[in-house]
Design brief:
By secondary structure, the chain is α/β, with parallel strands linked by helices. The protein is 26% helix and 26% strand. Strands 1, 2, 3, 4, 5, 15, 16 and 17 form an eight-stranded mixed β-sheet that branches. It has a seven-stranded parallel β-sheet with strand order 6-7-8-9-10-11-14. It is globular and about 70 Å long. Bound molecules: zinc ion.
Length: 412
């Protein structure tokens, strides 16, 4: 009896001495929401952020990862991806979506926002087959086209049902975080207006891929009249819709930003060009958020991954603190998910640990053109809800000499 009590007390003492599952030690923490950019330790317990402080004793942690010399940031939010692989599609339907978990964590990304791959007819399947089955947190901008993107139906007015789209978004509030209008080549403003109408009904932003211009549809009217403050203009450095004309940023973009329109990178396979991005930066027009437009076409070409796009923005002249804000707290606010994109105590422990290398690097745009850079970003370690989901250099791993291998499982 006495012996049992002593054992219980000893066990309780050990628990109290090691309240943290994992401590990331000695890294430079960048947490834009909390205005923090300094060397701090970060403790994680039960999948949540437990403490951010100058010196958390290693003895208080079951495991310590030495991240000195690295940057510890909230898990990255990629605001524009395509992650609904649809097997067996035929006809005009193209399928360049990728499996989310295969590309997220290795780039520091813990939340992906699918930008309109599905509409109200296809979202339920996306929800069942991808969103519920992914370790990556998957959110969605619902395409205002009911059938979704790349279906050959994107110009069909019969596909645009704002009421039904808003109802579906409300039924999945928090997972559906907005509406997407994309690739539209119809006569007027049908696609944009229906997306905005759905956005008003559901109290959510719309993301615009401005599609094809004509005499009626111009960027000035879009940014100054059709969109609401808080709506998102993606592909901002594409140049396809007169974002930059003869090396000058279109005044419509500056005026749009003044009234609260958000500008997102959405790099993709055809939407990021040096001859657009360089003058935009020189004229003081950085993006509000960084996103990849991840799909099998972009990731195998110039875009590569989230870290690559962030490094491009860093080399274009934004500070590292700004680049992290553009990839964490800014997109979280844009989609009204204020629980994400920061390291508040009690928040789900989604964390990226990044290495910034200095040297000679090269970066490729959507045309295949190169540009030199002096800094590169590499994801070293990624935590999703406190669990290590990516560890490039065994920083959180126990050494093999003391690792508790479970050999008996094979000896049966
Ligand atoms: Zn896209």
């Amino acid at each position: 009896m006495l012996r049992n009590s002593i054992l219980i007390l000893a066990a309780a003492g050990a628990l109290a001495a090691q309240p943290y599952d994992l401590v990331l030690k000695g890294g430079h923490v960048i947490d834009p929401k909390n205005g923090l950019s300094a060397v701090r330790d970060v403790a994680v317990t039960g999948g949540k952020i437990a403490r951010v402080a100058a010196n958390i004793p290693a003895a208080q942690a079951k495991r310590v990862a030495d991240v000195a010399g690295l940057y510890v940031t909230p898990g990255l939010i990629d605001l524009h991806v395509h992650v609904f692989p649809r097997p067996g599609l035929g006809g005009v339907q193209r399928d360049s979506s990728v499996q989310p978990d295969a590309f997220s964590f290795r780039s520091g990304v813990t939340t992906m926002v699918d930008a309109g791959t599905t509409g109200l007819k296809t979202f339920p399947m996306f929800h069942e087959q991808v969103i519920k089955r992914s370790q990556t947190r998957i959110l969605a901008m619902l395409n205002i086209v009911a059938a979704g993107m790349g279906t050959g139906l994107e110009d069909d007015p019969a596909q645009l049902d704002a009421n039904a789209a808003a109802a579906m978004a409300k039924a999945h509030k928090g997972t559906i975080v907005g509406f997407k209008s994309a690739h539209y080549a119809g006569p007027g403003w049908e696609s944009v207006e229906k997306a905005v109408a759905a956005g008003k009904m559901a109290d959510m932003p719309v993301m615009i891929d401005f599609g094809y211009l004509n005499k009626v549809r111009n960027i000035n009217t879009l940014l100054l009249d059709k969109l609401r403050p808080g709506d998102i203009y993606t592909h901002c450095y594409s140049g396809h819709r007169e974002e930059v004309v003869n090396g000058k940023v279109n005044p419509a973009l500056v005026a749009g930003r003044k009234r609260g329109i958000i500008f997102d990178v959405g790099h993709g396979a055809g939407s990021f060009y040096w001859y657009v991005a360089l003058p935009a930066f020189q004229q003081g027009f950085p993006p509000d958020s960084i996103s990849t437009d991840l799909h099998s076409g972009s990731m195998n070409a110039g875009m590569k991954d989230m870290a690559n796009v962030m490094a491009k923005i860093l080399n274009l002249g934004s500070s590292l603190d700004q680049v992290i804000a553009m990839s964490t707290w800014n997109p979280a606010r844009q989609i009204k998910r204020l629980d994400l994109g920061h390291l508040d105590v009690g928040a789900e422990a989604d964390i990226a640990v990044l290495r910034v290398d200095k040297g000679k690097f090269g970066f490729i745009d959507s045309a295949g053109a190169g540009n030199a850079g002096t800094q590169n970003i590499v994801a070293e370690l990624t935590l999703r809800a406190g669990k290590v989901v990516w560890d490039l250099n065994a920083r959180a791993a126990e050494n093999w000499k003391s690792f508790p291998y479970k050999k008996e499982a094979w000896a049966k």
